[in-house]
Amino acid sequence: MDLQWKAPQTVAARSKKRVTKSLSEADVRNYKDTILQHVHSGTYKSAIETLRDVHQFEIR
User: Fold this and answer.
1) Which end of the chain is more exposed for a tag (fewer CB within 10 A), N or C?
2) pTM (2 decimals)?
């Protein structure tokens, strides 16, 4: 499973193309506490949805 950060975009631009940036190992370490907090506070599915919606991660 790869974690990627999605840059905030306008609604019009979002429908035309998807811009993502791969997270480096250092970025993952910086977000580790946030990721673990969401995973431990609910189900796997709700943690994934929160990371996508709130923190703009794209998880493949």
Assistant:
1) N
2) 0.35
